[in-house]
Every structure is written in C-alpha cells, then in structure tokens.
Specification:
Number of helices: 23
CATH topology of the largest domain: Rossmann fold
Number of strands: 9
Largest sheet: 5 strands, parallel
Shape: elongated
CATH architecture of the largest domain: 3-Layer(aba) Sandwich
Strand content: 5-15%
Radius of gyration: 33 Å
C-alpha cells in the first residue's frame, strides 16, 4: 500500500513517502539507531542528517518528529493514529516547524527561532525544528543558532539536514549527533519501483525499472518522479526510458566503446556530433559508456581498462569544460589519434558534389595561375583550395603548428581547406562542418586564429572563415577598404554630396 494517502492532487513520490521507520528503504543503520534511541528515550537534542538529495533525510526527520510526540508509540515507531500524529501529518501542529535553510538563511530568522524555542510545546511533548539545507545559512546565522545548540531549552529537538556537511561549521557539527544517509543501491530501488508499479497498476518492465534505478544515481525520490513521468505513456519499457532520458541504445554505446578500443576516432566523433546536434546530454552518455565498458571488462575484455579510465576522466572534467562537445572530441583524438583520410570522406554517391574527382573540380573551378614553384614561393599569387579528399601539406603544417598553442583551434581547423590570394587568407570549411565554422567565429578563437595565421603565412590583410553551405563571395569592396585603413592606421573619408 502507498505510504501516504492516495489522491489525485498528490504526486507519486508524495503518496509513497514512508510514514514509519520500517518503511524507509536503504537506511537500515540510521533508522535502527534512531528507533532504538526513541524507544529508550535517549535521543540527543540536536541531530545532523547528511547525504545526497532524495535518499530520505526529510522523510526520516518527519517520522522522528511524530515518534517523539506519539502518545502510543510502538517500540520507537509512531502509531500514526493518535491526535498528535494526525496533527503533524496534516501540517497543523504548532510544535513541529520545518525551515528551509536556503530561503531563511539570515541572522534575523535565527534570532526569531531563538525567541520561539523558549516557549513550552503547545500540545506535544517536544518542539521539533527541522532545518533543511542547513549549510546555506550565513556565518552570522550559524553563530546565532550555535548559542541555542549550546544551551538548548528542555523539550526541544533540532534536526539539521544537509547535502553538503563540509559547509557546516565545526562548532555546529561538534554539538550534533551525525547520521549519514547513503545512496540507495540499484537493486533496492529496482525492487521498490516494481512494487510501486504493481500497487499503482502500472506496466513496468524489469529492464526499464533497472535503467530508471541506475540513472537516478541512488536517489529514490528522483526514480519515483521519473516513473510518474513515464507512466503517462504506458507501458514503461526500456526503449521508452531511453527516449525520455535521451540515452543512446545499447548498440550505439557498444560500438562507441569498441571503436575507442581499436583506435578508430571516426565513429566516436560521428556519435558525439549526432548526440550534440540532437541536444543530448554528453555527460550522461559518457556515464553509460563507462558503465558498459566496466561490464565488458568484468566479462573478460581487459583491453577496455584504458578506455574505461579515459571515459571516467572525461566525465569528471566535463563540468569545467568551456565546450562540452569540444572536450569530448579532443579526448577522443588524444586517445585514438586523428581520423584517417578514408574516415573523413563523405560517404555519398560518386556523382555527389562532395565526391567529385579532382579533375572535375578543376574543370568547375575558375582559372588559377599555374605555379611551378613550391607552394610557399612568392611567385604564386594565389593557391586554389584543395578538395576534402586531397592532402594539403601546407595546411597540415599550419594545423600542426597551431596544436601546441591551442588544441581546440587545431581540431576545428583540421577539416578545412585554404586559399591565399592578394594577402587575404580564405579558410573554407565543407558543408558538413557548420559547427566548426560557428566556433571559429567566436572572438577569442578568431583572435587566436588570426595571430597564428599571421605568424605562419606572413603579413596578411585579412583572414576570412567561410562555410561551403552558404554562398561565400569573399570580402566586399567596403570590407577591403576598412581592412586597408586599419592596416595603414588611417581613416575612410566619405565624399559629401553637394
């Protein structure tokens, strides 16, 4: 049966919030200790519940508030039937006060609390103050609370809950009995979700329940919220969970891991590009890939150990990355090396514009001066850009020089072609590399590119980054004039019409 009264106005996790210590999942040690302390009437005046979100800290605090005020307790358990328990359950008790530390974090709120604790309970045996997210209090508020904790009035119980106990001052910690709430195991949550689904009449596949439990990261409340969301479109299958969470299929994850193990950067880069273009969470994907690599290592594929370590490292570094996609792509290139030429070619029909032969492209291109000297010789006024399936030695040399100074710049320049004409360097990206084009337009990246180009190609009037997906006609006459004025440190004077 649900832990709270059924009702359409209550969400699933509220209906299944535990009402007794025996109903709490996954916190056996803390629950057993608290229950015994209540039964023996040896409960401390200040308790600190710490642990990640959704593991039962506030639920246990509410059970404890009823247990210490219950008129008919049963071996430390609240009866949930007496007047005191009913008032607390209905939120009508004046003696149980819940305070959100995030929104009541100032010294004024703590001073008000100090004044209130001096009053005797209105109808219960003990006044209970539950302060959630207590680490959010200011230093002054902690000092005001500390005075109350040092000399607590009789019949007052403080329950402090936090997800970040390291932010609570040691002076406060030293006056509390600490209880650590551990993340729930996958099997525990899977069993609980299946039990909830049976009672609620939901169609839930065991594989889907396991995936929900695994993706909830040990937080039962998160798992229950996700189950309720999925229950609107029954049945709840593994595929449904993957679609809602934006997770790739097992086949995609396996292919990704295997390609990394074989040093094939092409397939993983394509996977990352697809995930990013669809707005999928790369961090979640890396977690799935690392978990799958671990499972395969346990099954005997020891060669995946280095891959698993790399995936875990990328995931840990992702929150600090300037560009999440770029960070993962650089990790793939570092692990596997650059893609080979045949992996970079566009797999389209031979008559596609992207796979035309060099001869065809030469026939379509405008006339260019014939250069018999080396590519860098000054006698060459212009050099036509090479096609994507050709090797451009000078461009590769430029990219190699960029790599030590800026790995990200080198990666985004790698698929480009270039053309140098009259002091203007055109960098041309194929149509499938729109993301590279957009990144190269960012001011900081653009400055780094221009500095590197000036150093490698000599004095340049301008550097233009173009994308083959649009019509790029080069700089206009006005743009060239502005460039010349900037180089010559002059200004453009427009003739006034008479």
């Amino acid at each position: 049966m649900p832990m709270e009264e059924k009702g359409h106005e209550l969400s699933l996790y509220r209906r299944w919030r535990p009402l007794r210590f025996a109903d709490v999942v996954g916190q056996d040690l803390a629950v057993r200790t608290l229950r015994r302390a209540v039964a023996q009437q040896r409960l401390a005046h200040a308790l600190l519940f710490s642990g990640q979100r959704g593991v039962g800290k506030t639920s246990v605090a509410r059970i404890l508030a009823r247990a210490v005020n219950c008129t008919a307790p049963q071996e430390g358990e609240p009866c949930n039937a007496c007047d005191s328990c009913n008032r607390i359950l209905g939120g009508a008790s004046l003696d149980v006060v819940e305070i959100d530390g995030a929104s009541n974090r100032g010294i004024d709120q703590m001073r008000q609390l100090r004044e209130q604790v001096g009053y005797v309970p209105a109808g219960a045996q003990r006044k209970v103050y539950i302060i959630d997210e207590v680490h959010m209090l200011t230093g002054e508020a902690f000092n005001a609370l500390l005075k109350t904790l040092e000399e607590p009035p009789p019949r007052v119980l403080f329950i402090l809950a936090t997800t970040e106990p390291h932010k609570v001052p040691l002076t406060v910690l030293s006056r509390c009995q600490a209880y650590e709430f551990a993340p729930l195991g996958i099997e525990q949550m899977e069993e609980k979700l299946l039990a909830i689904a049976r009672d609620e009449g939901l169609e839930l596949e065991p594989a889907a329940a396991k995936l929900i439990a695994r993706r909830s990261g040990g937080a039962l409340r998160d798992a229950e919220v996700l189950l309720e969301q999925l229950a609107h479109s029954p049945p709840v299958t593994q595929q449904t969970v993957q679609e809602v969470l934006g997770l790739p299929t097992d086949e995609v994850v396996d292919s990704f891991v295997s390609a990394l193990a074989h040093g094939d950067a092409g397939q993983p880069l394509s996977t990352v590009e697809e995930l990013a273009s669809r707005g999928r969470d790369l961090g979640m994907f890396l977690e799935e890939a690392a978990t799958r690599a671990r499972d395969r290592i346990i099954a005997g594929e020891s060669e995946l150990i280095s891959v698993a370590r790399a995936l875990v490292r990328w995931r840990a570094e992702l929150p600090r990355a300037v560009s999440r996609r770029l960070h993962v792509e650089l990790g793939i290139l570092e692990l596997c090396g650059r893609p080979t030429e045949n992996r970079r070619q566009d797999p389209r029909p031979e008559d596609s514009p992207k796979t035309r032969t060099t001869k065809d492209s030469d026939r379509d291109a405008p006339d260019q001066p014939q250069c018999k000297a080396e590519p860098s010789a000054p006698t060459c006024a212009a050099k036509a850009p090479s096609r994507p399936n050709e090797v451009d030695p000078e461009w590769q040399e430029f990219v190699r020089k960029c790599y030590p100074q800026s790995k990200s710049l080198a990666v985004f320049l790698l698929p480009a072609n270039h053309q140098l004409t009259d002091g203007v360097l055109r960098i041309i990206l194929p149509a499938e590399y729109r993301f590279n084009y957009d990144v190269l337009q960012e001011p900081e990246v653009r400055r780094a590119l221009e500095e590197a180009a000036q150093e490698h190609f000599g004095a340049l009037l301008a550097v233009h980054v173009e994308w083959e997906g649009v019509d790029n006609t080069g700089p206009s006459l006005e743009d060239k004039a502005n460039i010349a004025a900037e180089i010559l440190e002059g200004e453009i004077v427009k003739e006034q019409s008479s």
